[in-house]
Protein backbone atom coordinates (compact mmCIF):
# COMPACT_ATOMS: atom_id res chain seq x y z
CA UNK A 1 0.00 0.00 0.00
CA UNK A 2 1.23 3.50 -0.79
CA UNK A 3 2.29 5.46 2.26
CA UNK A 4 3.14 9.17 2.11
CA UNK A 5 4.76 9.07 5.56
CA UNK A 6 7.12 6.27 4.57
CA UNK A 7 8.00 7.95 1.25
CA UNK A 8 8.70 11.21 3.08
CA UNK A 9 11.11 9.47 5.43
CA UNK A 10 12.88 7.60 2.65
CA UNK A 11 13.36 10.71 0.50
CA UNK A 12 14.28 12.84 3.52
CA UNK A 13 17.04 10.35 4.29
CA UNK A 14 18.89 11.69 1.25
CA UNK A 15 20.63 14.90 2.19
CA UNK A 16 20.29 16.50 -1.25
CA UNK A 17 16.51 15.90 -1.22
CA UNK A 18 15.77 16.96 2.33
CA UNK A 19 15.54 20.67 1.56
CA UNK A 20 12.88 20.08 -1.10
CA UNK A 21 10.46 18.35 1.28
CA UNK A 22 7.79 20.27 3.20
CA UNK A 23 8.19 19.55 6.91
CA UNK A 24 5.91 16.62 7.77
CA UNK A 25 4.83 14.68 10.88
CA UNK A 26 2.21 12.11 11.78
CA UNK A 27 -0.91 14.03 12.83
CA UNK A 28 -1.45 14.29 16.58
CA UNK A 29 -2.91 17.07 18.67
CA UNK A 30 0.60 18.04 19.59
CA UNK A 31 2.13 18.02 16.08
CA UNK A 32 -0.88 19.92 14.72
CA UNK A 33 -0.44 22.86 17.12
CA UNK A 34 3.32 22.80 16.88
CA UNK A 35 3.03 23.15 13.08
CA UNK A 36 0.28 25.78 13.35
CA UNK A 37 2.50 27.88 15.61
CA UNK A 38 5.41 27.51 13.23
CA UNK A 39 3.68 27.95 9.85
CA UNK A 40 0.25 29.47 10.55
CA UNK A 41 -1.11 27.29 7.78
CA UNK A 42 -0.86 23.52 7.46
CA UNK A 43 -2.14 20.72 5.23
CA UNK A 44 -3.43 17.47 6.62
CA UNK A 45 -3.86 14.41 4.46
CA UNK A 46 -4.35 10.66 4.80
CA UNK A 47 -1.10 8.68 4.69
CA UNK A 48 -2.65 6.24 2.27
CA UNK A 49 -4.75 8.78 0.39
CA UNK A 50 -5.12 9.46 -3.31
CA UNK A 51 -6.90 11.81 -5.72
CA UNK A 52 -6.91 14.62 -3.17
CA UNK A 53 -9.41 12.81 -0.91
CA UNK A 54 -9.35 14.06 2.67
CA UNK A 55 -6.72 16.73 1.96
CA UNK A 56 -7.52 19.89 3.91
CA UNK A 57 -5.85 23.12 4.91
CA UNK A 58 -6.06 24.69 8.35
CA UNK A 59 -5.19 28.35 8.66
CA UNK A 60 -4.89 30.56 11.66
CA UNK A 61 -6.73 33.77 10.83
CA UNK A 62 -6.45 35.45 14.18
CA UNK A 63 -6.05 34.50 17.82
CA UNK A 64 -8.69 31.79 18.33
CA UNK A 65 -9.99 32.07 14.80
CA UNK A 66 -9.29 29.20 12.43
CA UNK A 67 -10.35 28.32 8.94
CA UNK A 68 -10.57 24.83 7.53
CA UNK A 69 -10.60 24.55 3.76
CA UNK A 70 -11.69 21.20 2.36
CA UNK A 71 -12.56 20.67 -1.29
CA UNK A 72 -14.25 23.96 -2.23
CA UNK A 73 -15.73 24.59 1.22
CA UNK A 74 -14.42 26.80 4.01
CA UNK A 75 -15.44 26.52 7.64
CA UNK A 76 -14.54 28.96 10.39
CA UNK A 77 -13.96 27.70 13.92
CA UNK A 78 -13.24 29.65 17.04
CA UNK A 79 -11.24 27.41 19.31
CA UNK A 80 -8.56 24.78 19.22
CA UNK A 81 -10.69 21.98 20.65
CA UNK A 82 -13.30 22.60 17.99
CA UNK A 83 -10.63 22.33 15.29
CA UNK A 84 -9.29 19.09 16.67
CA UNK A 85 -12.78 17.60 17.11
CA UNK A 86 -13.65 18.57 13.57
CA UNK A 87 -10.55 16.83 12.25
CA UNK A 88 -11.27 13.73 14.31
CA UNK A 89 -14.73 13.48 12.76
CA UNK A 90 -13.25 13.95 9.34
CA UNK A 91 -10.88 11.08 9.90
CA UNK A 92 -13.66 8.79 11.09
CA UNK A 93 -15.49 9.26 7.82
CA UNK A 94 -12.66 7.59 5.95
CA UNK A 95 -11.75 3.92 6.24
CA UNK A 96 -8.16 4.92 6.78
CA UNK A 97 -7.62 7.00 9.86
CA UNK A 98 -3.98 7.81 9.85
CA UNK A 99 -3.11 11.30 8.75
CA UNK A 100 0.01 13.38 8.30
CA UNK A 101 0.37 17.09 8.95
CA UNK A 102 2.51 19.12 6.59
CA UNK A 103 3.75 22.65 6.16
CA UNK A 104 1.50 24.29 3.53
CA UNK A 105 3.47 25.52 0.55
CA UNK A 106 2.15 28.77 -0.94
CA UNK A 107 2.00 27.36 -4.46
CA UNK A 108 2.42 29.69 -7.42
CA UNK A 109 -0.97 30.55 -8.94
CA UNK A 110 -2.58 31.26 -12.31
CA UNK A 111 -5.57 33.61 -11.93
CA UNK A 112 -5.56 32.84 -8.19
CA UNK A 113 -5.71 29.07 -8.81
CA UNK A 114 -2.71 27.13 -7.44
CA UNK A 115 -0.89 24.79 -9.77
CA UNK A 116 1.72 22.09 -9.40
CA UNK A 117 3.58 19.84 -11.81
CA UNK A 118 3.30 16.16 -12.58
CA UNK A 119 6.81 14.95 -13.37
CA UNK A 120 7.08 11.48 -14.92
CA UNK A 121 10.25 9.56 -14.14
CA UNK A 122 10.60 6.15 -15.80
CA UNK A 123 13.03 3.35 -16.38
CA UNK A 124 13.10 0.61 -18.97
CA UNK A 125 12.61 -3.01 -17.98
CA UNK A 126 15.74 -4.37 -16.29
CA UNK A 127 17.41 -0.94 -16.18
CA UNK A 128 18.13 1.15 -13.08
CA UNK A 129 18.61 4.26 -15.19
CA UNK A 130 15.77 6.72 -14.41
CA UNK A 131 14.76 9.21 -17.11
CA UNK A 132 12.37 12.18 -16.95
CA UNK A 133 9.91 11.47 -19.77
CA UNK A 134 7.33 14.21 -19.25
CA UNK A 135 6.25 17.22 -17.21
CA UNK A 136 2.90 18.99 -17.20
CA UNK A 137 1.23 21.63 -15.03
CA UNK A 138 -2.05 20.82 -13.26
CA UNK A 139 -4.10 23.90 -12.36
CA UNK A 140 -6.57 23.59 -9.48
CA UNK A 141 -10.24 24.24 -10.17
CA UNK A 142 -11.57 27.52 -8.80
CA UNK A 143 -11.70 27.61 -4.98
CA UNK A 144 -9.87 24.29 -4.64
CA UNK A 145 -6.47 23.92 -3.01
CA UNK A 146 -5.76 20.51 -4.47
CA UNK A 147 -4.86 20.15 -8.12
CA UNK A 148 -6.30 16.64 -8.41
CA UNK A 149 -9.58 18.08 -9.62
CA UNK A 150 -7.59 19.90 -12.26
CA UNK A 151 -9.50 22.42 -14.31
CA UNK A 152 -6.67 22.60 -16.77
CA UNK A 153 -3.50 20.79 -17.81
CA UNK A 154 -0.86 22.99 -19.45
CA UNK A 155 2.67 22.75 -20.79
CA UNK A 156 5.00 23.73 -17.94
CA UNK A 157 6.56 26.73 -19.73
CA UNK A 158 3.14 28.16 -20.54
CA UNK A 159 1.96 27.69 -16.94
CA UNK A 160 5.02 29.46 -15.54
CA UNK A 161 4.71 32.36 -17.97
CA UNK A 162 1.05 32.91 -17.10
CA UNK A 163 1.56 32.57 -13.35
CA UNK A 164 2.80 34.58 -10.39
CA UNK A 165 6.24 33.24 -11.39
CA UNK A 166 6.36 35.15 -14.68
CA UNK A 167 8.96 37.65 -13.43
CA UNK A 168 11.19 35.01 -11.83
CA UNK A 169 14.35 33.76 -13.55
CA UNK A 170 13.11 30.29 -14.37
CA UNK A 171 15.69 28.96 -16.86
CA UNK A 172 17.34 26.84 -14.17
CA UNK A 173 14.04 25.64 -12.64
CA UNK A 174 13.28 22.89 -15.14
CA UNK A 175 16.71 21.20 -15.10
CA UNK A 176 16.63 21.38 -11.29
CA UNK A 177 13.20 19.69 -11.27
CA UNK A 178 14.52 16.91 -13.56
CA UNK A 179 17.45 16.35 -11.23
CA UNK A 180 15.23 16.14 -8.18
CA UNK A 181 12.91 13.68 -9.93
CA UNK A 182 15.76 11.38 -10.88
CA UNK A 183 17.37 11.54 -7.44
CA UNK A 184 14.05 10.93 -5.69
CA UNK A 185 13.13 7.96 -7.92
CA UNK A 186 16.58 6.48 -7.39
CA UNK A 187 16.26 6.85 -3.62
CA UNK A 188 12.72 5.43 -3.47
CA UNK A 189 13.80 2.57 -5.72
CA UNK A 190 10.27 1.21 -6.30
CA UNK A 191 9.48 -2.03 -8.08
CA UNK A 192 7.35 0.00 -10.49
CA UNK A 193 9.06 1.45 -13.54
CA UNK A 194 7.04 4.68 -13.56
CA UNK A 195 6.96 7.28 -10.79
CA UNK A 196 4.85 10.43 -11.12
CA UNK A 197 5.96 13.15 -8.74
CA UNK A 198 3.75 16.05 -7.68
CA UNK A 199 6.19 18.95 -7.62
CA UNK A 200 5.18 22.36 -6.29
CA UNK A 201 6.82 25.71 -6.98
CA UNK A 202 6.17 28.45 -4.44
CA UNK A 203 5.79 32.19 -5.11
CA UNK A 204 9.54 32.67 -4.71
CA UNK A 205 10.38 30.03 -7.29
CA UNK A 206 11.47 27.46 -4.73
CA UNK A 207 10.80 23.84 -5.69
CA UNK A 208 9.01 21.39 -3.35
CA UNK A 209 8.39 17.66 -3.58
CA UNK A 210 4.76 17.13 -2.61
CA UNK A 211 4.44 13.40 -3.17
CA UNK A 212 5.42 10.39 -5.23
CA UNK A 213 2.81 8.36 -7.12
CA UNK A 214 3.74 4.86 -8.19
CA UNK A 215 2.45 3.63 -11.53
CA UNK A 216 0.27 6.75 -12.00
CA UNK A 217 -2.26 7.30 -14.78
CA UNK A 218 -0.74 8.81 -17.87
CA UNK A 219 -3.92 10.31 -19.33
CA UNK A 220 -2.94 13.81 -18.10
CA UNK A 221 -0.39 13.89 -20.91
CA UNK A 222 -2.98 12.99 -23.53
CA UNK A 223 -4.67 16.31 -22.67
CA UNK A 224 -1.73 18.30 -24.03
CA UNK A 225 -1.97 19.36 -27.67
CA UNK A 226 1.60 18.24 -28.29
CA UNK A 227 1.58 14.41 -27.97
CA UNK A 228 5.39 13.98 -27.84
CA UNK A 229 5.59 13.37 -24.10
CA UNK A 230 2.53 11.12 -24.12
CA UNK A 231 4.14 8.92 -26.80
CA UNK A 232 7.47 8.77 -24.95
CA UNK A 233 5.74 7.83 -21.69
CA UNK A 234 3.79 5.05 -23.41
CA UNK A 235 6.98 3.74 -25.03
CA UNK A 236 8.71 3.54 -21.63
CA UNK A 237 5.72 1.79 -20.11
CA UNK A 238 5.91 -0.94 -22.74
CA UNK A 239 9.62 -1.52 -22.69
N1 LIG B 1 2.15 20.75 1.56
C1 LIG B 1 1.36 21.20 0.60
N2 LIG B 1 1.33 22.53 0.29
C2 LIG B 1 0.52 23.00 -0.71
N3 LIG B 1 -0.30 22.23 -1.44
C3 LIG B 1 -0.32 20.91 -1.18
C4 LIG B 1 0.49 20.33 -0.15
N4 LIG B 1 0.23 19.00 -0.10
C5 LIG B 1 -0.70 18.77 -1.05
N5 LIG B 1 -1.04 19.90 -1.70
C6 LIG B 1 -2.02 20.02 -2.82
O1 LIG B 1 -2.94 18.97 -2.71
C7 LIG B 1 -2.83 18.06 -3.81
C8 LIG B 1 -3.07 16.64 -3.29
O2 LIG B 1 -2.10 16.27 -2.34
P1 LIG B 1 -1.19 15.00 -2.53
O3 LIG B 1 -0.18 15.00 -1.46
O4 LIG B 1 -0.70 14.95 -3.92
O5 LIG B 1 -2.22 13.80 -2.24
P2 LIG B 1 -3.03 12.82 -3.22
O6 LIG B 1 -2.36 11.50 -3.07
O7 LIG B 1 -4.42 12.80 -2.67
O8 LIG B 1 -2.91 13.35 -4.61
C9 LIG B 1 -1.42 18.31 -4.37
O9 LIG B 1 -1.32 17.96 -5.74
C10 LIG B 1 -1.29 19.81 -4.15
O10 LIG B 1 -1.99 20.52 -5.15
MG1 LIG C 1 -1.11 13.85 -5.63
From TrEMBL:
InterPro entries: YheC/D (IPR026838). This is YheC/YheD family protein. It comes from Lederbergia citrea.
